[in-house]
């Protein structure tokens, strides 16, 4: 197959962009009264309105042609079949197996992984029941009041985001998350915690991740400083890992090691044992509902025609903006305070998966890949960076996400939240013309001079594209569906870009070089091979720490 | 004056970019052994290494020519002179007066504002002493244990960020921040708080901001549900506002209203009474140190030659990347867990100030303005989005910010943090060539086939530009200096782009349209004038809420 950007389908889209660039959303809506009805999809409790995008009736068909030529359907099949589609690590990619709630088998090298998956879920259930009921106790015989998850990257952001997103359902012990190697993170977290009632979950596949082990050892010292007895470690530490020997050496009882597998990528792992802190917080029945929601979306993704496939359509719209409109970033704007960590989570999911510059074959891509994904919870963003989205010189496609019902329906807060969310998508699309702006100022009684001066500043170009995602309420089920939706969206984009969305070699070089610099800082002896800047900084730090 | 992009200076830079695009950082370092020494600056306790940027010895002089033709020095003078440089609102811009720690006068319309500034600082001092000492008490006679700041945008992000950034110095009552109109934000915050010992700070200049007032009223109901006596409101609510009548009507004693002025923009206001929650947390002496640090940077900014002026040089490097290299985003990466809100704060500061599309004269700008500013605390980002920064198809200039000393020097955590920070800047600059990657894989004993297949994926293009900012330790002083540095940087960029960095008309349209939609949701009666998407969403929400 030729590189995707050499295909006729790609070139059709490049040409087609010229048409769209010459029109605008106001016109598109005026010209088509059925637009809203035609450009919407629902699956697994999620409703998507994608009509406020820079698409006409020809765009999606052309994008679907591209999906066809990139063999999106074939790659979905390959993923489900357990093929080693993570080619640089020679691994299958089967996070869908983690939430498979049917008798179906998932095969890796001919072996069904489902018995292992179910066995770990059962062990998680037993463990969380003990912790949540008070049957698990610390060295002084007291129940656990606080759980501290120590992990980084996928072993942190996923469980952190979901635990907070389901804060309304949180009826277990307090759950804290420590990730940064900065001593401040752990020290500030442990302040006010009682070693006798604190349980640590150490999440590291290899049990050698520098940040995680550094924090775990300091946490162990904190426990031992309080109780003195190394036997207590087994009561206060459990592991999510595959490295039995390392885990045992740390002092953890291997019976309290929860396994996951090399076919689970870090950023796709919250559905596995990595989700243990979630299950401690909300209980296993609700963790299963989270899996149920993801499973519902998985089924939709696997079976729906591409044109009605929520993750596929969202992926194609993203591709449209990255490669043809050349928009560099995309924003995620959840109108739900519980979902405040969602933008950071999706930032990792998307940018670590598709921030790649070579194809699966190792050739340089000849086109842009993953955009910068960013955002924050609304309405806060409205009073911060929305200025640039409305009136800046870049176009930033936005996903607005909002539940119809709030878990905390105090007074009219939620109606205001809904009104703001809808108004933003309306404002971004419509804008306000110079003439409208002038008329408004005149109506306010401003002088002709003032009107002339102010109107350009109060004009909005509009034509800013948005998706709106509605759910009834953010339950474990709908959250699971939403996350699976974005996982599959990112996968489809990676398929079209022909990159491996499941490795992350880009994190290795920094680790390697940090391993060189650390002993230099420790001994106070810089090596001269560094560039002048790095050397100069090392010397300055050594001098100032002396 | 012609538009800035029509000047010779701008065109020189466009031409000059071709030279830089044809070289790379490795070469630039090899070719110039004095690069690190020449490309560094210090002021007010902040050390900047800017040598790892895509600059040669001609670049900064050419950028300084641009600063000259844009009259940066003249605009600095105009700001300090209290001229109404916020032209669309006809206001002076004098956040520098808020931290003026000298006998100097700052004039607005011929009147020195310093007596007012000092008077409010004195009132803040008296108030915070009372709250912190327990002399201020609630309706049942108990001291205040928790302070809840209710504000949004500049009335939230600044105080929130600084309060957390100075967490090490936090010895006053607990301080919470509620901003989002989402009822969840307030409800979850109040859970576990005691009305008898909770004090609310309501921060809203006009006392009409929808989010803030909605939250304030729900908070007042919460208090009244507990104590029943409206007279208690005055003991549990204070205001940061200028709207005496509204404040009084709410039930707040006007003696407990802290004023600020129209020459203080929301995103530049943490130095004013808006900083009250900071002062409650750390005490006024340390709040003064924060002002001292900003004042030291202000003096540097006002007096240093442009070529040695930290905010000016950082601004010019940003301009270089936005307008000549066409990099769409810039990342802020604080290696300090206390500074975890800094990226969100700078995102607002930068994007709300310079996310503009018309010049001061109201003409469309013919060039790009404010970039998307984003980031997170390191080392977490390393395990999330750094993949794209290292190996993606976009170049993202990054500011690395790190203290030489930690407030929590547990074990070797901080040396590891430092090693990681330096290693990232080294890795981003150097990259790893295909040949280096192959040699490494061969040395690991990989087969020739594996080497061929894997090496391209493990290659790093390098040549990714970074700034490194070092401080001794993040004290109130150095934090104040850092924030003033970025404020002035943003200002200089705005001067060169010839935009008004001090208004935010872009937030108005959404507010206006939300005001239309809210009654439709409340009455269940949508108006038909909306576009089909907005109307369809409103109808769907009404139906599902019925």
Outline the structure in words.
In chain A, about 50% of the residues lie in helices and about 10% in strands. Chain A has about 550 residues and is of the alpha/beta class. The first copy, chain A, has a 6-stranded mixed sheet with strand order 1-2-13-12-10-11, sandwiched between helices. A 5-stranded parallel sheet of chain A has the order 6-5-7-8-9, sandwiched between helices. Chain A has a two-stranded antiparallel sheet with strand order 3-4. The mean pLDDT of chain A is about 95. Chains A and B meet through helix 3, helix 9, helix 10, helix 16 and strand 11 of A and helix 3, helix 9, helix 10, helix 16 and strand 11 of B.
Number of helices of chain A: 23
Strand order of the biggest β-sheet of chain A: 1-2-13-12-10-11
Give the distance, in angstroms, between the N- and C-terminal Cα atoms of chain A: 60 Å
Q: Quick one: which chains have the greatest interface?
A: A-B, 158 and 158 residues
Number of strands of chain A: 13
- Largest sheet of chain A, described in full? 6 strands, mixed
Radius of gyration of chain A: 26 Å
Briefly note the structural class of the backbone of chain A: alpha/beta
Oligomer: homodimer
Low-pLDDT stretches of chain A: none
Q: Percent range for helical residues of chain A?
A: 40-55%
Instruction: Round the mean pLDDT of chain A to the nearest integer and report it.
Output: 97
Shape of chain A: globular
Strand content of chain A: 5-15%
């Amino acid at each position: 197959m030729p590189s995707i950007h050499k295909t006729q389908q790609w070139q059709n889209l490049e040409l087609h962009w010229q048409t769209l660039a010459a029109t605008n959303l106001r016109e598109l809506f005026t010209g088509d009264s059925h637009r809203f009805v035609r450009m919407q999809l629902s699956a697994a409790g999620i409703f998507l309105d994608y009509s406020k995008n820079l698409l006409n009736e020809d765009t999606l068909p052309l994008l679907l042609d591209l999906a066809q030529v990139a063999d999106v359907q074939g790659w979905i099949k390959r993923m489900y079949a357990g093929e080693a589609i993570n080619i640089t690590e020679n691994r299958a990619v089967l996070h869908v197996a983690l939430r498979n709630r049917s008798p179906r088998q998932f095969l890796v090298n001919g072996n069904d992984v489902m018995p292992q998956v179910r066995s770990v879920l059962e062990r998680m259930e037993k463990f969380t029941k003990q912790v949540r009921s008070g049957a698990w106790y610390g060295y002084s015989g007291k129940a656990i009041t606080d759980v501290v998850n120590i992990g980084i990257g996928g072993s942190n952001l996923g469980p952190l985001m979901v635990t907070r997103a389901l804060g309304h359902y949180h009826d277990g012990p307090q759950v804290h998350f420590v990730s940064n190697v900065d001593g401040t993170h752990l020290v500030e977290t442990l302040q006010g915690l009682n070693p006798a009632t604190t349980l640590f979950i150490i999440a590291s596949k290899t049990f050698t991740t520098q940040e995680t082990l550094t924090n775990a050892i300091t946490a162990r010292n904190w426990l031992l400083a309080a109780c003195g007895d190394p036997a207590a470690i087994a009561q206060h530490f459990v592991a999510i890992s595959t490295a039995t020997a390392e885990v045992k050496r740390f002092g953890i009882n291997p019976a309290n090691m929860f396994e996951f597998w090399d076919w689970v990528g870090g950023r796709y792992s919250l559905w596995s044992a990595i989700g243990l802190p979630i299950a401690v917080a909300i209980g296993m029945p609700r963790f299963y509902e989270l899996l149920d929601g993801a499973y519902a979306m998985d089924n939709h993704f696997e079976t729906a025609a591409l044109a009605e496939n929520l993750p596929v359509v969202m992926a194609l719209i993203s591709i449209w903006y990255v490669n043809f409109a050349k928009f560099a970033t995309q924003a995620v704007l959840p109108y739900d305070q519980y979902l405040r960590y969602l933008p950071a989570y999706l930032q990792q999911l998307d940018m670590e998966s598709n921030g790649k510059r070579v194809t699966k074959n190792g050739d340089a891509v000849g086109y842009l890949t993953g955009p910068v994904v960013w955002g924050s919870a609304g309405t806060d963003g409205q009073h911060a960076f929305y200025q640039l989205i409305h009136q800046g010189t870049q176009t930033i496609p936005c996903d607005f996400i909002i539940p119809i019902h709030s878990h905390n329906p105090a007074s009219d807060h939620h109606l205001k939240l809904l009104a703001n969310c809808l108004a933003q998508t309306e404002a971004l699309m419509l804008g306000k013309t110079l003439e409208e702006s002038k008329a408004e100022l005149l109506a306010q009684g401003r002088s002709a001079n003032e009107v002339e001066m102010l109107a350009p500043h109060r004009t909005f170009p509009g034509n800013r594209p948005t998706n709106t995602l509605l759910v009834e309420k953010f339950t474990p089920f709908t959250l699971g569906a939403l996350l699976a939706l974005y996982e599959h969206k990112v996968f489809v984009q990676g398929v079209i870009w022909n990159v491996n969305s499941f490795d992350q070699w880009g994190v290795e070089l920094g680790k390697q070089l940090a391993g060189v610099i650390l002993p230099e800082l420790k001994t106070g002896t810089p090596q001269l091979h560094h560039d002048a800047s790095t050397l100069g900084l090392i010397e300055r730090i050594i001098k100032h720490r002396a």
